[in-house]
Amino acid sequence: MADVLAYAEIRDGQAGKAAREVVTAARTVSEELGGSVHVVAVGGVGTAGAGESLGAYGADRIMVAESEELGLYQPDVVTDVVARAAAGEYAAVLFPASAQGKDLGPRVAGRLGRGLATDVIAISTEGGAITVQRPMYAGKATATLRFTEGPAIMTVRANVFGATERPGAGAVESIEIGSAEVRARVTAFEAADRDQLDVSEATIIVSGGRGLQGADHWHLLEDLVAALGDQATLGASRAVVDAGWRPHAEQVGQTGKTVSPNLYFAVGISGAIQHLAGMQTAKVIVAINRDADAPIFGVADYGLVGDLFEILPRLTEEVRRVRQDG
Hints:
The chain is of the alpha/beta class. 27% of the residues lie in helices and 26% in strands. The protein has 2 domains: 171 residues, HUPs (Rossmann fold), CATH 3.40.50.620; 122 residues, TPP-binding domain (Rossmann fold), CATH 3.40.50. The chain has 8 helices and 17 strands. A 7-stranded parallel beta sheet has the order 7-11-6-1-4-5-12, with helices on both faces.
């Protein structure tokens, strides 16, 4: 078994960042094993076109199940389709660690009677066996897990396996939806009324904590996000969300969202373990805090000790200047 199967999450008729990253991760594993990358995509009418685009990221075979009824994610139906596809001779089955992937991965693993590794941040092959790494104990340790039998089923953390174009054969074929027992049906999806990027998709996150002293000061973070460009977004600590300063959709941490951006600003955040669990795999961490002993400095690549109300405006101004000159 050398082929790898990836589940491509299709949203609004598009194969987004989560789909591209999971296919890239599957390509990395398949190349080590000497196999091919197969993709299964399930969704509304037009899913075939969205799935075809994944050939540019390494998909060799793209299996598509589409119908008008699947315009919204239907757990029972999608589980049945993916489990039947995954029943083939695969070394691994990969899902994105998105809300949908976290729901679907365990369902498919249970259907196949196999174990599941969640929130994977590294994958390697040793003697044909697949080994993965994942954070545990709120990020205080990293576990190394070795699958003793296939397929190795896992969800992979966002932004860890950056989407990279490496063209595959990209052959698209239709597969049957089947007649799964439907115990629950999604009838509507209500998106948050927000123009900014979701924290799980942004490559730059500017997060604020209680050090900002209130929602009225959030404009300082908004100014920095605007200066950083379209790939930046706002984040928040749990204390801020609990206080009602910011919506839960922006919460980063163990009880919020786990993120791995290229650049993470922790502004006025002390660094409680539940927050660190959600962001410490960011590639570069910049901490701004007046307390030099704050735990956040223990994981930061760069630390600024001082008054954030003085630092942020100057930092924002400098970012604007550099971007304009560049």
